Structure formats: structure tokens, C-alpha cells
Amino acid sequence: MDVKPIEVCCAPMLTTALSEADAEDLAAAFKVLADPARLRLLSLIASQDEACACDLVEPIGRSQPTVSHHLAVLTDAGLLEREKRGKWAYYRAVPGCLAVLRDVLGSPSLTTTGA
């Protein structure tokens, strides 16, 4: 999967039109998050300060190689940081990356009308 790291580059989608390049970059980032296992991994890690890869296999219910693959995709997308400690890899969420995705979809002018 060809994923570029998420950068703070885009204005909220509902206040200004995205450029083609920004739309492609954001679509790639959302594609990374469209996988349920990756979304769960990111949620597990983001809810803690950090998590060891060895502790993520059981909660996800996938094999270790599969979990490692998903962690690599999330890291390549810039959503996670990886730190090697001996033979173990520890992951933490990159501050602000999820906020970028949330903010590009949100708009202060968007309100619910109850319809």
C-alpha cells in the first residue's frame, strides 16, 4: 500500500475545496484507517501512552506477522511512532495526526438541524 505520512496541510473540507494532491494524500490516510484491525490497533495504542507489539496480538485476535504488518502500515502512514528496545518494538500514537484527519472532515459551521 502506497501511503504518505499525514501532514498538517489541509483546511477543513467543508470550508474550502481540497486540492487534488491533498485529496489523494488524505484518501490514502483514510484507506489505512479503513481496515478494522488497524483501526483497533490504533485505538488500543492511542488509549495508552505506548504499547509493546507483543501485547497487541491477543487483543486483536490476529497472528503476530499480521499484527506486525498492520503496525508497519500505521507507522508508514505517520500515525504511529516505533521505538526498538532490545528485541521488542514499542509503539505510540503520533500527537496530532488523528486531529488532522478529524479537523479536515469537520467544520465549525456544520450544525445539526434535527432533520
Automatic annotation (TrEMBL):
Keyword Transcription on entry: yes
InterPro entries xref list: ArsR-like_HTH, ArsR_HTH, HTH_ArsR_DNA-bd_dom, HTH_MetalResp_TranReg, WH-like_DNA-bd_sf, WH_DNA-bd_sf
Keywords per UniProt: DNA-binding, Transcription, Transcription regulation
A Pfam family the protein falls into: HTH_5
GO MF: DNA binding; DNA-binding transcription factor activity
Domain HTH arsR-type: 18-113
NCBIfam families: HTH_metalloreg (NF033788)
Name the record gives this protein: Arsenical resistance operon repressor
Organism annotation: uncultured Acidimicrobiales bacterium
